[in-house]
Amino acid sequence: MSVFVEVDHIDKAFPLPDGSSYVALKNIELKIKQGEFISLIGHSGCGKSTLLNIVAGLDRASKGGVILEGREVKGPGPDRMVVFQNYSLLPWLSVRENIALAVNRVFKDSPKGERRGIIEKHIDLVGLRHAADKRPGELSGGMKQRVAIARALAIRPKLLLLDEPFGALDALTRGGLQERLMEICEESRVTCIMVTHDVDEALLLSDRIVMLTNGPESHIGQILDIPIPRPRHRMEVVNHPNYYALRNEIIYFLNQQKRDKRRKAKQPAAVAIARHGLEKVNLDIGFIPLTDCAPLVVAKEKGFFKKHGLEDVNLSREPSWKAISEGVATGRLDAAQMVAAMPLSMTLGLGLTRPVPMVTALVLARNGNAITLSKQLYQQGVRTLADLKAAVTQSVDKVHTLGMVHPASMHNLMLRYWLAAGGIDPDRDVNLTVIPPPQMVANLKAGNIDGYCVGEPWNSRAVYEDLGFVVATDLDIWPGHPEKVLGMREEWVNQHPQTHIALVKALLEACEYCDDRRNREEILGWLCQPQYVGSAPEYTRPGFIDPYNLGAGQKPQSYPRFNQFHIEQTNCPGRVEGLWILTQLARWGITPFPKNWLEILERVRRVDLYGEAARQLGWPDTEPDRECFQLFDSMVFNPDDPIGYLNKLTIRREIRIEEIIIDTPTTEAA
Description:
Oligomer: single chain
Number of strands: 26
Number of helices: 25
Structural class: alpha/beta
Helix content: 25-40%
Strand content: 15-25%
């Protein structure tokens, strides 16, 4: 069925007296089919009614808009009718006259008899024949709301908008009116969007429930499909086997939002301003010598750090990702280039004595990795994943060992995904071992490993020295995946908010500079210096500037997106891709899957802080769409059903699902 209503990336900001603005809604994107009943649910202040008013045309979005049947909504119209909580009836008119007021206005060119027939039909539709001549003051609350619904439906709207229509009614009246509304909607096939605080009401009436996070910058946190067949009756719905699981999921979402609000209220105050409006201007930032550390190098060499008030930034070359993790956790480093899953895994406690809540407001790079296999495997006939599966199966007296850089790296997660998609269990059929990136080539040459997954230039060096060949790049597995991010302790960000925004702005400008290919020769010269990557230009150029050499006599491939630093929303730390990372950490038993995954994602992947930095630069600040996606094996990932996705994966460890409640530690405790 085609899209009937499209809420197209809506933002809504309200101006404040001090000249700033309050962003109530952020990047709301929703597609609704004809005849669907959608409920919006969330805590007070999350922007539910604001969104409804924008769809109704009673308010305008600051960005984005609403499309109804292919036409943009620019103002109120008879194709959309709103039913408010307070009835909105004219007290001096009868039931019949209140309904007639709308009918006569919309159908003024229709014959009088036809209009009268519409009015009388809708009086009967809501069961008010006995009260047709009574005025609102003579009616109960439930009867008044039935008049409002009849008036709305009488003009035959394409879209019925309900703003807590039963909120002021007693339970008995509310239940009866809900049943009648269901019957009416099913008879007329009208499309409905309803704002409600009532979980049971939403479950009874809805096809989908859209759950909004707390403001500011409220966005869609989760969409719940309600697989209860229609026509529905209250007792049948309550007795449906999925009812209480669905109800508990909504309540759990709302409780996460309540807990998040309490946590934010307890955040520590920022430290005193040091200079240039920043709390701290001297920073130590860790990095690993890889080609995709380029944004940090560019920000230093081109003066972007100083441009944004960061007077002395020391780039600390670290020996391993473990050293990066420990350096940030203990406070030795203010921030660091991190593998994409590290902020999430540190927040969940991986490799630390206790969890350290982390923040990432910036993706520094996407893509840039490859899987390299040894020359010996090539000589055995291995060219593809299927060939590797055959070699592993046939080698009964040998366990093949593959290197990766850190359990929470995309190198590990994508290598495991690639192997499992080919029927190779990464824990039982082969051996995976952690090796720092600069040591990969030496271990391959010594025969300690049979291959590895790493970033450049360490794949190209193995090819250059004729030690191995590239069997797959991440463009073959998941093009555009997040690879490196900026990682900082949450406590540090809360205490240095202006410094953090300045750092993100400097690196955003550096990322843009890196993706202008006219600058790549200049950047290469910096990367090859010993204080940064220190690699030879001949095996640092492939993929970064030159066509990518896969080795083994294969023709070099042109991969313009092999190292991606800025284009196509590269820098936004999207929540959906973060959720996929959480599923993979849980798939292999690296961390439990957090039952409160939304709370963890909201806390770690700070789209709001990314957006603030982007807006200060005058750049777009939208997050990638919340939508299903798939990797090379066509397994669809649905961000509204991560557990269902995990359960479909055939090769995996036992999945642990736990509620992860994390207190903010002090630096000493971390």
